[in-house]
Design goal:
Strand content: 5-15%
Distance between the termini: 75 Å
Number of helices: 18
Number of domains: 5
Number of strands: 13
Shape: elongated
Oligomer: single chain
Helix content: 55-70%
């Protein structure tokens, strides 16, 4: 046994020993049973307080202590050996049964798994367990002591009553006082004073001023007051004190029960009244405690509901999707700001809506959306979820594509009108991207089919030449192979440009300080080295600033611009390119690439940066992706690119902005 266990066992030995001795003080004579048995309450509270995981050795020691104390004290108070052994055995069996029954039936437990009295059902269950345990103890007494004549059949009721009363009047209150009540909530001073005064008056009248008058029913008045005004712990303490007072006064020959019956039956009546006093007070107090707990839970749930409602309201108010609730009578009890913004004449569901007349709404196939076609009316009419994609058009504004989901729901009991929840999602950008992707795929397919057709045609011609002649001479086969290789190179360049476009669009930028003079100088030197002979390109690079950009994308950008400047010149013209810079917007520098090429018509300058735009005349190869790549790179660095005529000469000037510092890049919308 651990040292920490000894003090706890000591409390059992002392408490149980004292109450056994007090019970023995009420014996009628040598060799007779006690009239009251408070020790049963102490033992019940002790064994109920043991945790379910207590070791068998620990429990065995407790039961040995219980039997030993009972046996020794009874022998010391003039009980016979037979009676002492019987009462020790009866006590052990009684509490073995009570503990096992409660282990199987208890529903309210504390954190350690021990039974507690939390509600009226627990009180009833514990009282029933006490009655069962007392019955076992009584049967043991009858079996052992009846043959020796130490008890009679008439003593069975008195014996059973004293055992039940001991548990109910002392054990149950101790259980509540130990760990069955919220000790942070104490009974109010007014309640304590009122209960104390009522108890003093009633008990004084019943046991002193009007002793012998049948006022037993009046003893319930203080218990009702205690159960109504005090918390369970206070009601439990009041019950113990009141029950003890009632039994003690009765044993002293005072009160309404002292002359009720002859013999020992009057003590049983007093103990039954004591049990009624305790159970009444605890019942009322537990019901009130349950009501308070229920009210607290309801209040907490109400607060949680308010918090959740606020959260949901905040979410609804801040989501980008429009949410509109429409009732069957056409009223709109709920609409978030996005819903009010997105809803149009065909979707407002009310002709008097401020949006009415502002928009014209069409189906995805271009048909006007009529009133009967509105998603909310369809959902209201059919009771099914309706999903539509509509287009809103307004004068002077770009078209807006909305995906509308209308879901019918039933209203609450107090307002059973059917409702429709309409969710509107602006899918304009998604629709544009879908159309752009479809167009992109079509152009890619078209541009790849041309060289593939050339390869297939010349390969077929070469095959026919082999079939017709068996041997194809170099003057016949070489031009065919050259055309196949030229088409293959065209496809290769096209695929490379597609990869470059994808890189410029999707690659995560890794900006750092870059010396543009060094980077552009290297690219210019490479261009000059391609055609070192006379007539090669003349590329001038003025001093350029250090910028905060992605060096890989910058190399791709200037390589495209220099390549275009060198390629798109009139026949017989020596390319001349100048790269310089001027101050730009705050935090940016404006870079310029000026050439003497064929130029770009003024009306075509806005289109030149679109994908697959080929504005050059016949005789110039290209995929139409180079300048689209440049625009995407500039925009990802927060800048803007444009084209204008070269000053004082034919050709073009491409100008664009690049950030000078990290803060400039971070503050840019790109």
């Amino acid at each position: 046994m651990s040292r920490a266990r000894l003090p706890n066992l000591g409390w059992l030995v002392v408490g149980y020993g004292i109450t056994v001795l007090l019970g023995r003080l009420t014996v009628g004579g040598p060799g007779t049973l006690s009239l009251v048995w408070p020790a049963a309450g102490v033992a019940a509270a002790w064994f109920w307080s043991l945790t379910p995981v207590a070791s068998r050795r620990r429990i065995l020691i407790d039961y040995v202590a219980l039997a030993g104390i009972t046996f020794i004290v009874l022998l010391a108070t003039a009980a016979t050996w037979t009676m002492a052994l019987d009462r020790a055995l009866g006590a052990v069996l009684q509490f073995l049964v009570m503990v096992e029954v409660l282990r199987r039936t208890a529903t309210s437990r504390d954190a350690l798994g021990r039974p507690v009295m939390a509600n009226l059902a627990d009180l009833g269950r514990l009282t029933a367990v006490a009655a069962v345990g007392a019955l076992v103890n009584t049967l043991v007494a009858l079996v052992v002591l009846l043959p020796d004549g130490e008890v009679a059949w008439s003593d069975a009721v008195n014996l059973w009553t004293r055992q039940v009363a001991g548990v109910v009047c002392l054990g149950l209150p101790l259980l509540v006082l130990w760990h069955g009540d919220d000790r942070s909530r104490r009974s109010g001073r007014f309640g304590l004073m009122a209960v104390g005064a009522t108890s003093a008056v009633v008990f004084g009248a019943a046991f002193w001023w009007f002793s012998g008058t049948p006022l037993g029913y009046a003893l319930l008045v203080p218990s009702i007051a205690a159960g109504t005004l005090l918390r369970p712990a206070g009601a439990a303490a009041h019950g113990v004190i009141s029950a003890t007072a009632a039994v003690c006064f009765t044993l002293a020959g005072s009160g309404p029960f002292s002359r009720a019956l002859a013999g020992e039956a009057y003590t049983s009546i007093a103990q039954l009244c004591a049990m009624l006093i305790v159970v009444t007070g605890l019942s009322l107090s537990l019901v009130r405690a349950e009501s308070r707990q229920l009210a607290d839970r309801l209040a907490e749930r109400a607060r949680d509901s308010e918090v959740r409602l606020d959260e949901v309201s905040t979410i609804i108010e801040t989501v980008h999707d429009g949410i509109v609730v429409i009732k069957q009578d056409g009223s709109v009890p709920l609409a978030n700001p996005a819903g009010l913004q997105l809803v149009g004449a065909a979707l407002a569901e009310q002709d008097e809506s401020p949006a009415a007349g502002s928009y014209r709404t069409f189906h995805a196939d271009g048909r006007p959306l009529t009133r009967d076609d509105r998603p909310s009316l369809l959902a209201m009419r059919t009771g099914e979820v309706v999903v539509q994609t509509v287009t809103q058009r307004a004068d002077g504004r770009p078209d807006r594509v909305l995906r509308v989901i209308a879901t019918p729901i039933d209203g609450p009991a107090e307002d059973p009108q059917r409702r429709v929840v309409v969710v509107l999602t602006d899918v304009t950008l998604v629709d544009e991207e879908r159309r752009s992707l479809a167009s992109f795929a079509g152009i890619v397919a078209h541009d790849l089919l041309n060289p593939i057709g050339v390869v297939d045609g010349w390969a077929e011609a070469l095959q026919e030449a082999f079939e017709d002649h068996g041997v194809v001479t170099s003057d016949v086969g070489s031009p065919m192979v050259e055309r196949v290789r030229r088409s293959a190179r065209s496809m290769q360049h096209f695929v490379q440009d597609l990869l470059a476009f994808t890189t410029a669009r999707d690659r995560a930028i890794e900006p750092r300080p870059v010396d543009l003079s060094l980077l552009v100088g290297e690219l210019a030197a490479l261009r000059r080295d391609v055609t070192p002979a006379a007539g090669g390109p003349a590329i001038e690079v003025s001093p350029l600033p250090r910028v905060f950009v992605d060096p890989f994308l910058m190399r791709q950008l200037f390589d495209n611009l220099l390549g275009n400047a060198v390629k798109y010149v009139a026949p017989g013209t020596v390319p001349h390119v100048c790269v310089d810079s001027v101050p730009g917007p705050a935090g940016f520098a404006t870079l310029r690439v000026t050439d003497n090429g064929i130029g770009i018509p003024e009306g075509e300058r806005d289109k030149v940066f679109d994908e697959f735009q080929r504005l050059q005349p016949e005789g110039y190869s290209g995929t139409g992706l180079g300048l689209a790549i440049c625009r995407r790179i500039i925009e990802r660095h927060g800048g803007h690119i444009w084209v204008e005529s070269a000053p004082d000469q034919p050709g073009s000037r491409f100008a664009f902005d690049l950030p000078l510092t990290a803060s400039s890049l971070a503050a840019s919308p790109g």
